[in-house]
Amino acid sequence: MLFLEKKPLVKKILFVCLGNICRSPAAEAVFKDIVAKKGLAAKFEIDSAGTSGYHSGEPADVRMQQHAKKRGYTITSISRPFDPKYDFDHFDLILAMDDDNLHDLKEMTRNQEDVKKIHLMTDFSASGHHHHVPDPYYGGPQGFDFVLDLLEETGKGLFNYIENSTS
Ligand code: 4NP
């Protein structure tokens, strides 16, 4: 008898900001938490990257880590630059935090397949009130909390979108 191995469908999601030390590592942690709470961690591969390599090899900004910790998220990612040759082929969805990130990613695309994978994170906002995830790096503590609020809202929207488009 022939047994065909049934491979689980794994969705591969990449979050992208400028430095990969504030917004996208937080997005990675928040989305991992959403998926884990649904019992679907094994069905997802979730990562983050920066359009720049300014902070390559560094852990997330301590302020972002501390604000995330207060909500129960542990940010473990280490900053790395977006790699067009690998990341466009490997990931199914690439989420940019703001219009600059979106523009920079689009500049690196090689074909329409690459272009179709890129979206703004705020496209998944249920409220539709916000059009980008603002960079908190040069601001005060409230900026980090606001980023986390937005990532929780848009993360849920992203999860619902994926669930509806794969079921
Ligand atoms: P991120 O924030 O893009 O959310 O990681 C920034 C981190 C570092 C810098 C800018 C934004 N920087 O200019 O070094």
Descriptive overview:
The protein is 43% helix and 13% strand. With 167 residues, the chain is of the alpha/beta class. It starts with 10 loop residues before the first strand and ends with a helix. The model has no long low-confidence stretch (mean pLDDT 94). Strands 2-1-3-4 form a four-stranded parallel sheet, sandwiched between helices. Helix 1 (23-37) packs across helix 6 and helix 2 crosses helix 6 (141-166). The chain has a single domain, classed as 3-Layer(aba) Sandwich (Rossmann fold), CATH 3.40.50.2300. It contains six helices and four strands; from the N terminus they run E-H-E-H-H-E-H-H-E-H. 4-nitrophenyl phosphate binds next to loops.
Features:
binds 4-nitrophenyl phosphate, 6 helices, 4-stranded parallel sheet, Rossmann fold, 167 residues, alpha/beta
Summarize this structure briefly.
The protein is α/β, with parallel strands linked by helices. 43% of the residues lie in helices and 13% in strands. Helix 1 links the parallel strand 1 (11-17) and strand 2.
Biggest sheet overview: 4 strands, parallel
Succession of helices and strands: EHEHHEHHEH
Oligomer: single chain
**Helix vs. strand class:** alpha/beta
Overall average pLDDT? 94
Cα Rg: 16 Å
**What is the CATH T-level topology?**
Rossmann fold
Q: What is the overall shape?
A: globular
Q: How many E strands?
A: 4
Provide the CATH top-level class.
Alpha Beta
List ligands, each type once. 4-nitrophenyl phosphate
Q: Please, how many helices?
A: 6
Distance between the termini: 30 Å
CATH level-4 homologous superfamily: Response regulator
- Poorly predicted residue ranges: none
Q: Specify the helix fraction band.
A: 40-55%
- Strand content of the residues, in percent? 5-15%
